[in-house]
Queue: 4 jobs
Job 1
Amino acid sequence: MANKFKGDVSFESGEKTYTMRFSANALCEIEEALGMGINTVSNLLADKETMRLKMVRVVFWAGLRDHHPETTLHQAGEIITDLSLGEAMLLVSKAFQLAFQDNSQAHPQKPGQKSPATKSAAGTGLQS
């Protein structure tokens, strides 16, 4: 089951339900596979002129790794094909937004507790 406070986005492809999440580990997988920082990747994905399918496939694959570690890059490409590139990009965008959202409203503070550092989607390059 998807947990939006952890950035989970569930979807179906074929007869299987998948859950995508851009955890710290997933973001590191993206940076390592593409050889660039996550903000650069996000900005490149957000621009139709600079977006590359290889990049979309890597990002999609990395987002599946937390819940579906057995998924290969090739399988991620097959899932994208099954969904459509447009739908796959919407899922990636939604999961990225959740990964960079401010969760302070989701977890009420205890009296006297300091607020956690504010997170924002700034620099992700993906629009809400």
Job 2
Amino acid sequence: MRVRLGSDLIVLNLIGWVLISVIIFFPSNILRIVLGIPFLSFFPGYTLVAALYAKKEGIGGIGRVALSFGLSIAVVPLIGLILNYTPWGIRVEPVLYTVASFILVTSIIAWVRRSRLAEEERFVLPFRVPMPVWGEGVGDKVLTIVLVLVIIGALGTLSYVITTPKVGETFTEFYILGQEGKAENYPGELKVGGEGRVIVGIINHEGKEVSYRVEVVIGEKKSTEVGPLVLLDEQKWEGEVSFVSEVAGKHQGVEFLLYKQGEVEPCLEPLRLWVDVTE
């Protein structure tokens, strides 16, 4: 039994839109991985091969499969490289929509080229793939089996890497901003007893819930303490923090120290501002 003209292309595009729907509505679903692997590693190459080789002659079924994987491996990184130089960047949504558009465009080209051929000349995807028959061309049959095993092994390895990712580096982001929320216009001049104000930010990338505490020190004297601030993994906190200097002097160092989980030593290098304090 064989699929009708263009049905294989329609199925591939439908699977692509199903994947998009799954990612939008169920971002952590296992179906995202099951559909995403062939979507990136096979579909783009398959539709491109279909557009280039509309006739059944010239390339066999196994050759089409191998070439589909190879071209997909070439096309998808190229799409990522192009997206890297656009305002959208390399993110899930832009990559997903761009690859889906590539599959759609090449599918349309393949369908048009097939429709212009006589029915007996068109490539039609069979439901049943015949097993290699031993006899003549034994070397070709062995090569075919090896190629199939390599493809299955590559897909298995890719699936394992995706489903069991390595634990990334754990860290905490700690920064100070001016009152406008930008890395500029920090207080540079104060009067004795006058307040300086900045925005302090903390982002937890530790992979677990962490309790933080911030100290502001001028010279050897603690001016302000903020906390405890309990942040979940990937949670962000920003808040206005003020400090006061009681001693006049130029180029006084204001240090912002970050502690976590009740530790007595700062978990990161102090952040510093330099202010001139006048009478």
Job 3
Amino acid sequence: MGAAADEVIAAHAATEGLCILTRDHDFGDVRNYPPGDYAGIVVFDVPDQLKLTFFLELLKKFATDELTISQLPGRLAVVDPWRTRLR
């Protein structure tokens, strides 16, 4: 769904009970995308020039953090190379 409009992605995720994982900071705007409407929203705040291998390691680290994953439904997570913030 990478080429789909944000609204289409959000509607699909909400309907199917899916978590949104993205680098698109638009999804971090809780006024437009209230986290309570989704199984979670995860915005990866990483530079464009980040190497793919580093990004995959960051994704793996996030995905294996059982405490954060358990707290994710209905919340926004912002993940950067140094930390994960839940809102």
Job 4
Amino acid sequence: MVLTHALAYTRHRQHELVACIDPDAKARLAFMEKWKVRYGYSTVDEALKTEQFDVASVCGPTGTHLPTLAKLLDADLKAIFVEKPLDGDAIGAKAIGMNFEQKGIPVAVNFTRRFDPAMHTFQSEIAAGRYGELRSIVGWCGTDLMNSGSHMVDLAIFLIGRVPRVVSVNRMGKNISALLDLGGAPFHLLAANNPACSRFEVELAFSQAVVTIEDNGLALRRRAIVPSPDFIGAAVPERGEWIATQYGSAMLVALDELTAWRPGARLSSDIESACISIALTEAIGRQTQEHSA
């Protein structure tokens, strides 16, 4: 399972992890020892003044993404891999993204499931009509809308190819529910406050099947709609079976795309696509605050 930037560069045959940046000296030294990194710096400015790098990863906490990207605008880089949610600032991220585009530097955004080959296959199956017409989507995630919720929104947009419209938002305690319109198909987003359980599941109901993305994106379950063996005249989803996705190698695919990128090409997840999902998640957050007020 490749779930970190460091492991992705270590595993990828065309990259070598050579430096890290962390203002905490103890954490920086621990990272350097664990990953056998030669160089360590306390700031981005220090790193850029000392060495020349081909690729930079921006994987600090939310709130540091855009300031770091702004510093990297003056660096002579070939590519950038940045964590979502781009500080939850779609407008600011889009402006920086346009600057990188003008410089011819591709920026991949780690909405990881967009790089999963299994999700690309599923997207193609939907477009080809394998499951029939979309009837509804229901997604369950944690209460952090901008971090886990933006993943959910982004995945729905990627799979269906349409940007939903926010219809209504409700809050019950720390739980948030949002109803979105995907061109006539309802998209129910449920952010439940359950510290004891990390959950990311999406159910897509079609006219001919129900497909569920389960196990935090590690499994896909296809359930064809068949005549019920128990209820006469009724049609129900069969039990189906779990099929493993390729989520665990998705970050390697992201590095493949960055390595192969040429001017005019699009990455599976870039600043342009990420800003659409982040702006929508921002809208849900604003309506949640208004509803609470």
